[in-house]
Amino acid sequence: MATIDDVARHAGVAASTVSYVLSGKRSISAATRTRVEAAISELGYHPHAGARALASARTQVMALMVPLPLTPGTSMLRPEVDVNVLMQFVAGIAPRARVQGYDVLLVTDDDPAAGQRLWAGSTADAIIAMSVQTDDPRIDHLARAKVPAILIGLPADPHGLSCVDFDFEDAGRLAVRHLAGRGHRRIALVGPPPTTFERRMSFVERMVRGLAQTASACDVRLDVIPTAARRDAVAASMSEVLDVADRPTALVVHHEAALPSVLDVLRDRNWRIPEDISVIAVAPPSIAEQQAAPLSSIEVPAHAIGATAVDMAVAALSGAGVPETRLVRAGLTDRASTAAPPA
Amino acid sequence: MATIDDVARHAGVAASTVSYVLSGKRSISAATRTRVEAAISELGYHPHAGARALASARTQVMALMVPLPLTPGTSMLRPEVDVNVLMQFVAGIAPRARVQGYDVLLVTDDDPAAGQRLWAGSTADAIIAMSVQTDDPRIDHLARAKVPAILIGLPADPHGLSCVDFDFEDAGRLAVRHLAGRGHRRIALVGPPPTTFERRMSFVERMVRGLAQTASACDVRLDVIPTAARRDAVAASMSEVLDVADRPTALVVHHEAALPSVLDVLRDRNWRIPEDISVIAVAPPSIAEQQAAPLSSIEVPAHAIGATAVDMAVAALSGAGVPETRLVRAGLTDRASTAAPPA
DNA sequence: TTGAAAGCGCTAACAT
DNA sequence: ATGTTAGCGCTTTCAA
Predict the structure, then answer these.
(1) B contact test, residue of A66, A109, A122, A256 with most B CBs within 10 A
(2) Does residue B131 have a pLDDT over 90?
(3) pLDDT tier at A151, thresholds 50, 70, 90
(4) Domain range spanning residue B217?
(5) Out of A54, A83, A86, whose CB is closest to B51?
(6) A332: three-class secondary structure by DSSP
(7) B30-43 and B4-11 helices cross at what angle (nearest 10)?
């Protein structure tokens, strides 16, 4: 492999000149620049990442913490891991990082201290943590890191770290407002699996808080139905809440994987949407549209949030910007799956 | 941050001794080892990844190429990207890489030459490429790389690279054998979206080849139904094939995201499984079990394949092993969704 | 506008 | 069993 010295010799300049041509950190005469660039492409020169990291104290690598817990005893991802949503974030993060000049290192350890290796060994310049819990054990560690850390999610105490996420609390308020405005007085959240609640995932707690807050303000009763995605699990959990005299007249479904099953269950009961029950989905448009009946939905702009996380990390690295929390406001797309409750 | 010299001074030894304690590349007296280890933990020493890479010509990083193409004009992943399957591979790769002492660098560029940056700049020690096409433009580049590359998938010409994947061709044969044995003479593959066929993804071509091969041997007619996951798309494509006099009496569904819609469509027609039509799904057990009716299925052991890819990369790095293609045999789990065709 | 030279922190010969 | 030392390839001060 060609080194910077090879290039320098080939172009008849000093190695430092090559470095400066590459970094643009000082002005170079047009003639020199041309010769150096020619040498670079003739030799197929690519700077050695490690050498560069050593000399500049910059790796141009961003670590992405994505815990991927497996179901014990199997090699399947735990069911509460919503891979669709996860990948939507990743698809926002990785290309944006490239544009900003960074590679993305994937860290899937479930160990709270996993990040330490990264900054202590100068492996990454910044860290983005996903799947944040309300009391996330990683935050302590990240707050002590010598590199900036950005959380995608909103813990109870960010310890001074920057956060960016969808405003799930606002989404909850919006959903209840929408339904209460149509006359509903009993609403249920069909939520993620119980394990998600047990792990105290930040997003679901905020969603519940938003729902509960407006429900209480509007004199609406709120039931919460955590459920696994499996069809029988969905049927069972829903039946507990729906098979009562004053059953909920509207559902907010915040569990993408369970959505088809939820609609199946409603269909098995011969309940029509929205005549017999109103439904709002928290899901991307493509999912909300492709169900048996198109569903009014609240969309999580995961892609944009991921890109924002990268930008916040870059800003932190350039010394600009103080720690902040940025929450993206919710919007509801009406697809006529909500109406007044049945008489 | 503490350096190796700090540790050496603290322990009263030479820096090289610390290095050797860490690498285990030469024997160290118990006393010295103890003192060095104490110094390391007292100072919280972590070797500098860049310095190590520079001196040893090893980065302990594996690059993972996962193209994440977006739907043009949107920020959504292209629908033919099956994130579930993708993440199942990643969940197998990342932890295995850690165990083997490697970090995973995520490369999502759709550029065929994207990998070049990685090895030319000594950014990664090895490359694992996913989503392989039958004629994959990346393979040329990877075959020229100075670092080993492993393909997850099986192109027409691997250019001498090692490959590992599920034996989709075998899966196709197995499915037809199973159905033909129960008397079916007309079978349809409900496959991934047309774009997947257009991109000539390796897995789907091999599946079709296996199906066609045994179909022809057993005198079975094979229809292929590429379809988007959207319910209306599924309904439309299926109707083209099912609304004919001698309609297929069995479906092989190789499109996880479309599975619920397929079953919806069958139900809308009041076709019972397996009395009116037999169904085999290519899907993980959790998916096959949770449908409206449990489905007999062929499982893709993505997790294990991912882990194997890592092991093959490590073997290649240690000089052991020659390039090889490893295909994991298919198996069918019977969940009673197949029977003899209707009379 | 350019060059020379001193490290960055580590590994791995080469000594002893 | 341990120490000494010469790089690995780059960035960046200091000089000119």
Answers:
(1) A122
(2) yes
(3) very high
(4) 168-300
(5) A54
(6) strand
(7) 130
